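Hi R.,

Here's the chain you asked about this morning:
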Amino acid sequence: MDTGAIAIGLNTSAANAERAGITIDWSDPTPVNGGTATVYPITPDRISIGDAVGQHLPGSVGPTPWEAMTGFDGIGNFTHEFFKPFAVTFDFVGMHLPRLMVLLCVVAGRLGAVAAAGHVAPAAAAVL
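And the predicted structure, written out as tokens:
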């Protein structure tokens, strides 16, 4: 989830877009990140997270940093244009720090090292 990618509803890899039947406009390359990478436009008919649905939102395919950061394929990144019509809220009062630490460690791919160091309660590690 990335609410900062303006004018884009979905970022994904070309392989995932093709697997989902999304047409890629290979004729319109767009340099990004200061010209260090190139993305290509897509416009999926429909994308959704639960009951939240976006239709015909602009998107892009190309290299993504998430695989290297997390060690797994995140399928896609829902971004600003998808979330604009919705109220996205976070319950920071009800959030439990051990679960937050576990989530952050999983994203960083270091759950085992942090749990072994005693920074995450075993019960919190078992949640995931």
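The longest helix spans residues 97-108.

Let me know if you need anything else.
M.
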